[in-house]
C-alpha cells in the first residue's frame, strides 16, 4: 500500500503550454472541477518557455497563433509584427494565465515521472520527480508534440570543451560576438537560428544532413489599420481556420498545379513566394503540391531556381540545393539562403563528409578536417509526438504500460485517447491533426471537456476508447497519409528522425476542418467508439 500523503483532485493536467493552460481553464471554470496542473518548467508557456534560441519565432502568422476562446483578448492584445518571436508568444501566454488567474492551480518546476491507473478506485495517481504524488479521476496530458529534445549521440560529445546548447532547452544570456559557432541541423529551428546569428558571430559552420526547401516568411511590421481589420473579422477568421485544412488563416488552393499553363504556375509560385509563409507556399499555391509528384517537382524546381539565384558561391549553392521531394514540414525564413553569401558562413554537407567525432576543440569530419569551434548549437529537433510519453512510466489497466501498448508505434483513437488507459486524455497525442496548433488544441480541449462533462452527467466514473475504434482510426490515418508525399521523406512527422524509432503514421492528415467534424459526429452519436461506465 502507498503510505505517502496523496492530494486528491477531480482532474490533473500536465504541461503548461497552449494545451494545458486552456484545459485547466475549461475544467476549472466551466465544469467547476478541482484541478491541479503540474509543469516541469519553472514558468508557463511550454514550447515558448523552452525555445529561447536567437530567431525563435512562430511561423504561423500572429493573428492566428493565439487562442480564439478569449474574444476580449483578441480585441485588446497588441502586437506589431506579422509573426511573433518567442518572447512575444511567451508574454501572451503569461498574460492569459494572469488574466484567468490560473497560476494558483499550477505547480511549476514539478516534473511528472509516473502516471498510474488504479482500477479499484478508478483514479490516476501521478508521481513527480521529487516524490510528491497527486490523485485525480481524470488526467489530461499536454506534454507537447515537439518538446522531448533529440540530442544525437555523437562520438566524443563530452570531450568538447566549448559551449553546447540544444535549441529546445536554450539558456538566457548566451553571447555570439567573436565566437566560432557550429550549428548542427537545418530544420525549421536550424534555419531560424542560422539566419539570426550569422551576422553576429565571428564564424559560422553549418553542418547539414539534408538540404531544405525554404521560402520567405514575409515577416513585416503591422500597423493599427491591420489590427483593426483583423479584429473586425475575427468570427469569420476563426470559422474559416477551423474549417480549413491546415488552419493557417489563408484559403487553401483547390487548383491542381498541372491544370494551369507553365507561365501561370510560375506566376502563382512567385506571388506566394512574395507573400511569404511555408504552409501558404505548400497549400495555398496549388491543391496537390503535397500529394502529386509532378506538382511537387514543379514547386521544387521553383525553389531550386531561387537558391541558384540567391547563393553566389556555386559550391555552397550545390550543397544547399535539395533533391528529395518537398514533403517535410514546410519551412520559411528571414533571409536564410542569403546568409551563405557572407564570407564568415560555411556549410558542411554531412552525407559527403560525415561527423566522425567531437574533439576538445571542435568537430572532426570524415575528410580529416577539424572544425575549431567555441560553441555548438544542436538544432537537431525533437523525439516528436510520443517522445515525452515514452520517457515516462505510464501504466493503465492491469498494469499495461504505454510502451507495451505502443510497441508497434504510437496509436490512439481521435488523437486523444487510448483503450486500457481510461480517463486519460492526451492533447496533441498521436494521430491528431496536422495543422496550426493553437486552433487544433482548442478543438481537442473543447471535446475533452465535453467528454468529461458527459461522464459526470451520467454519474459514470470511466470514459474509455474501444480497441476497435483505435484500430480503425490508425487505419484511417495511415490511408490518408499514404495519399500524400510526406511518407516519402524522412522527418519527425513519421518518427524517422530518431535512430531506432519505428517509422509510423503519427498524424491525421485529413485537415483540421474534417477532423473537427469527426469529433462533432462522435460526440453527437453518444461518443461513438467509447464506453462510458
Ligand atoms: P508545449 O508547448 O510543448 O508544452 C508542453 C509542456 O509540457 C512543456 O512546458 C513541458 O515542460 C511540459 N511537460 C512535458 N513533460 C512533462 C512532465 N513529464 N512533467 C511535467 N511537465 C511536462 N506550432 C504551430 O502551430 N505553428 C508554429 O509556427 C510553431 N512553431 C514552433 C516553433 C518551435 C521552435 C517549436 C519547438 C514548436 C513550434 N510549434 C508551432 C509547435 C508548438 O509546440 C505548438 O504550437 C504549441 O506550442 C504546443 O503547445 P502544447 O501545450 O501542446 O505543448
Ligand atoms: P527538425 O525539423 O527535426 O530538424 C532537425 C535537423 O537536425 C534536421 O536538419 C536533421 O537532419 C538534423 N539532424 C537530426 N539528427 C541529426 C544527426 N544525428 N546528425 C546530423 N543532423 C541531424 O527539428 P526542428 O527543431 O528544426 O523543427 C521541429 C519542429 O519544431 C518544426 O517543424 C516546427 O514545427 C517546430 P535531417 O533533415 O533529418 O536529415
Keywords for this entry:
eight-stranded mixed β-sheet; binds flavin-adenine dinucleotide; 22 strands; single chain; alpha/beta; binds ligand NA7; five-stranded parallel β-sheet; globular; 533 residues
Report on the structure:
With 533 residues, the chain is α/β, with parallel strands linked by helices. The protein is 33% helix and 18% strand. Strands 1, 2, 3, 4, 5, 6, 17 and 18 form an eight-stranded mixed β-sheet that branches. Strands 7-16-8-9-12 form a five-stranded parallel β-sheet. Helix 5 links the parallel strand 8 and strand 9. Bound molecules: flavin-adenine dinucleotide and ligand NA7. Flavin-adenine dinucleotide (FAD) binds next to helix 1, helix 2 and helix 15. The site of ligand NA7 has 20 residues, from helix 5.
* Oligomeric form: single chain
Bound molecules: flavin-adenine dinucleotide, ligand NA7
SS-derived structural category: alpha/beta
**Helical stretch tally:** 17
Average pLDDT level: 97
Helical content stands at: 25-40%
Question: Which residues sit in consecutive blocks of at least 5 with pLDDT less than 50?
Answer: none
Query: How many runs of DSSP E, i.e. beta strands?
Result: 22
Q: Write down the Rg.
A: 23 Å
Amino acid at each position: 500500500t502507498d503510505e505517502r500523503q496523496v492530494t486528491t483532485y477531480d482532474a490533473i493536467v500536465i504541461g503548461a503550454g497552449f494545451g494545458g493552460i486552456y484545459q485547466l481553464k475549461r475544467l476549472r471554470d466551466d465544469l467547476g472541477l478541482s484541478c491541479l496542473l503540474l509543469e516541469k518548467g519553472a514558468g508557463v508557456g511550454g514550447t515558448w518557455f523552452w525555445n529561447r534560441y536567437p530567431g525563435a519565432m512562430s511561423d504561423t502568422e500572429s493573428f492566428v497563433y493565439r487562442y480564439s476562446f478569449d474574444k476580449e483578448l483578441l480585441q485588446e492584445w497588441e502586437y506589431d509584427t506579422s509573426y511573433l518571436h518567442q518572447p512575444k508568444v511567451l508574454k501572451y501566454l503569461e498574460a492569459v494565465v494572469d488574466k484567468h488567474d490560473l497560476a494558483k492551480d499550477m505547480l511549476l518546476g514539478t516534473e511528472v515521472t509516473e502516471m498510474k491507473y488504479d482500477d479499484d478506485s478508478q483514479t490516476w495517481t501521478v508521481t513527480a520527480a521529487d516524490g510528491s504524488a497527486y490523485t485525480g479521476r481524470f488526467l489530461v496530458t499536454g506534454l507537447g508534440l515537439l518538446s522531448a529534445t533529440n540530442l544525437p549521440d555523437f562520438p566524443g560529445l563530452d570531450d568538447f570543451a566549448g559551449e553546447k546548447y540544444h535549441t529546445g532547452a536554450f539558456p538566457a544570456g548566451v553571447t555570439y560576438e567573436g565566437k566560432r559557432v557550429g550549428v548542427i541541423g537545418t530544420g525549421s529551428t536550424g534555419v531560424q537560428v542560422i539566419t539570426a546569428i550569422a551576422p553576429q558571430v565571428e564564424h559560422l559552420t553549418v553542418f547539414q544532413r539534408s538540404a531544405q526547401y525554404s521560402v520567405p516568411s514575409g515577416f513585416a511590421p503591422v500597423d493599427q489599420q491591420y489590427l483593426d481589420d483583423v479584429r473586425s473579422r475575427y468570427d469569420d477568421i476563426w470559422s474559416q481556420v477551423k474549417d480549413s485544412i491546415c488552419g493557417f488563416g489563408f484559403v487553401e488552393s483547390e487548383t491542381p498545379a498541372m491544370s494551369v499553363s507553365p507561365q501561370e504556375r510560375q506566376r502563382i509560385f512567385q506571388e506566394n513566394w512574395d507573400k511569404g509563409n511555408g504552409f501558404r507556399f505548400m497549400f495555398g499555391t496549388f491543391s496537390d503540391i503535397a500529394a502529386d509528384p509532378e506538382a511537387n517537382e514543379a514547386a521544387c524546381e521553383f525553389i531550386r531556381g531561387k537558391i541558384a539565384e540567391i547563393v553566389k558561391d556555386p559550391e555552397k549553392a550545390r550543397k544547399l540545393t535539395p533533391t528529395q521531394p518537398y514533403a517535410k514540414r514546410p519551412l520559411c525564413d528571414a533571409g536564410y539562403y542569403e546568409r551563405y553569401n557572407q564570407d564568415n558562413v560555411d556549410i558542411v554537407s554531412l552525407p559527403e563528409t560525415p561527423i566522425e567525432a567531437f574533439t576538445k576543440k571542435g568537430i572532426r569530419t570524415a575528410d580529416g578536417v577539424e572544425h575549431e569551434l567555441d560553441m555548438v548549437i544542436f538544432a537537431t529537433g525533437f523525439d516528436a509526438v510520443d517522445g515525452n510519453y515514452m520517457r515516462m512510466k505510464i501504466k493503465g489497466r492491469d498494469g499495461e504500460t504505454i510502451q507495451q501498448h505502443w510497441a508497434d508505434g504510437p496509436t490512439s483513437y481521435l488523437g486523444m485517447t487510448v483503450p486500457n488507459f481510461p480517463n486519460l486524455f492526451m492533447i496533441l497525442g498521436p494521430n491528431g491533426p496536422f495543422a496550426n496548433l493553437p486552433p487544433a488544441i482548442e478543438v481537442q480541449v473543447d471535446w475533452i471537456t465535453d467528454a468529461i462533462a458527459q461522464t459526470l452527467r451520467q454519474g459514470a466514473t470511466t470514459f474509455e476508447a474501444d480497441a476497435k475504434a483505435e484500430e480503425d482510426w490508425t487505419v484511417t490515418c495511415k490511408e490518408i497519409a499514404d495519399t500524400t508525399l510526406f511518407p516519402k521523406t524522412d522527418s519527425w512527422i513519421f518518427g524517422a528522425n530518431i535512430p531506432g524509432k519505428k517509422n509510423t503514421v503519427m498524424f491525421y492528415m485529413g485537415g483540421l476542418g474534417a477532423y473537427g467534424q469527426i469529433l462533432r459526429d462522435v460526440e453527437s452519436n453518444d461518443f461513438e467508439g467509447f464506453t462510458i461506465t
